[in-house]
Specification:
Length: 250
């Protein structure tokens, strides 16, 4: 849970456009120093083909991108990763301009950056840390459950990697990037260019970290062998079969 904000603290964002829905990340209040990502979801009936979305601040373009399918539901949206670096800015209200091109739809949203001094504990001391094993480059955040258990996690990923190599009849070339996250995102495990796994004591999605890592390693290695992560029914079936399940042994 987020710590309560100081008395009189304004909300971080204004009400989104009545047509397009805007989502800011990190979720919750935004603070000076945040690397802000933005999702712009299209309204019903909007035709995204041939259109793009631009985000600007004080006449300077922060980013421009097209609309694409996103997430399990394949919703149409424009996704801006780490588009706004707020380092060095003053706290206060900023007006972001959103423009649909070439349609000409435009609107502004007020976004409030809170002072760095009110960032709740333990975030001010949190840092990304890394360690390598034979198979993997492991990334985690200091002060989290994964930092506490990092030696156990190093052994865990090595054990799973050896088993995945055996079952697929191949070897891992290079190192698999694995990110341990201190919160539950989705079902707790994702694989693309890297693997991200939720790891925390109170994981409501389950605490079968080794199982999830094995499953996502199959996805990662499958893609490295030319699978290109498609078709979905086959790649998911392969990972479930070779891992004896997904979030638990089945």
């Amino acid at each position: 849970m987020l710590a309560p904000l100081p008395a009189g603290t304004p909300e971080p964002t204004a009400t989104a456009s009545p047509d397009f829905r805007v989502i800011y990340h990190p979720d919750g209040p935004l603070y000076v120093g945040d690397q802000v990502s933005i999702e712009v979801l299209v309204p019903t009936g909007f035709e995204p083909k041939g259109q793009s979305m631009r985000v600007s601040l004080d006449g300077k373009t922060l980013g421009e991108t097209g609309f694409q399918s996103f997430g399990i539901g394949l919703r149409q949206q424009a996704t801006f990763y780490w588009v706004w670096d707020t380092s060095g800015l003053s706290d206060g209200s900023y007006s972001l301009a959103f423009s649909v091109l070439p349609d000409g739809i435009e609107w502004h949203e007020q976004v409030t950056l809170l002072p760095l001094s009110v960032v709740p504990y333990p975030e001010p001391d949190a840092r990304w840390e890394s360690v390598e094993t034979r198979c993997c480059a492991i990334h985690y955040i200091s002060g989290t459950d994964s930092a506490r258990d990092i030696e156990k996690l190093k052994t865990m990923v090595e054990t799973q990697a050896v088993d995945v190599e055996k079952r697929l009849g191949t070897q891992i070339n290079g190192k698999i990037p694995i990110n341990f996250l201190p919160r539950v995102l989705g079902h707790g495990g994702f694989a693309s260019e890297s693997i991200s796994v939720s790891y925390l004591d109170h994981n409501y999605a389950g605490n079968a970290a080794a199982q999830v890592i094995h499953h996502e390693m199959v996805h990662w290695l499958d893609s490295q062998m030319g699978g290109k992560m498609r078709p979905t029914i086959l790649i998911e079936g392969l990972a479930v079969f070779l891992s004896d399940g997904h979030f638990k042994v089945e």
